[in-house]
Amino acid sequence: MKKLLVFLLLGACGFRPMYSASDVDIYVPPIRSGANGIELRNALNNKFGGQKDVSAPYVLEVSLAEPTTSYKALDQTGVATWQEIILTASYTLKAGDTVIASGKETSSESYSFVQYLVAANASYNNAVNNTITVLAEKIGNRAMAEVYKHSHGNK
């Protein structure tokens, strides 16, 4: 009930979220990293309210590195039972030819590594998808904040 009351009060005062996807007109060119690049691009486009075309005022170029894995736990026989996947993406946000933001984001997730091939692949793929979702959130939030700052003259 309290959440509803806060929502109604904020709506009545003209509150508008700064990071609203409907305000963001960012084109994300294809990310050349196979299926992971496609998934990251789709997640970013969803965050920005749908795919934009090349005429958008802002362009977000993303480079996604291949995932790396490391062992996190071993059982008594020395067989790996837990792994961590790490994905790193570099990005550049441009307004025309002007770079307004750039950086690198990293995300990781641990997953259970079992001896059965199908289960191991499913666990790995779920970890990759979750990691891509987190990367899209990090990069997307930063891009929306920079677009807001740039479009409102707050440099």
What does this structure look like?
- It is a single chain.
- This protein has 155 residues and is α+β, with helices and mostly antiparallel strands.
- The chain has 3 helices and 5 strands; from the N terminus they run H-E-H-E-E-E-E-H.
- The protein has helices at 2-12, 34-47, 117-151; strands spanning 26-27, 58-64, 68-74, 80-95, 98-112.
- It has one domain: Double Stranded RNA Binding Domain (2-Layer Sandwich), CATH 3.30.160.
- Strand 4 (80-95) and strand 5 (98-112) form a beta hairpin.
- Strands 1, 2, 3, 4 and 5 form a 5-stranded mixed sheet that branches.
- Helix content is 39%, strand content 30%.
- The mean pLDDT is 84.
Fill in the CATH topology: Double Stranded RNA Binding Domain
| CATH architecture classification name | 2-Layer Sandwich
Average per-residue pLDDT, rounded, comes to 84
**Secondary-structure element string:** HEHEEEEH
Would you kindly provide a brief summary of this structure?
The chain is an alpha+beta fold. The protein is built from 3 helices and 5 strands, in the order H-E-H-E-E-E-E-H. Helix 2 crosses helix 3.
Layout of strands and helices, then pairs:
Layout: H1 2-12, E1 26-27, H2 34-47, E2 58-64, E3 68-74, E4 80-95, E5 98-112, H3 117-151
Parallel strand pairs: 1-2
Antiparallel strand pairs: 2-4, 3-4, 4-5
Helix pairs in contact: 2-3
Tags for this model:
alpha+beta, Double Stranded RNA Binding Domain, 5-stranded mixed sheet, 3 helices
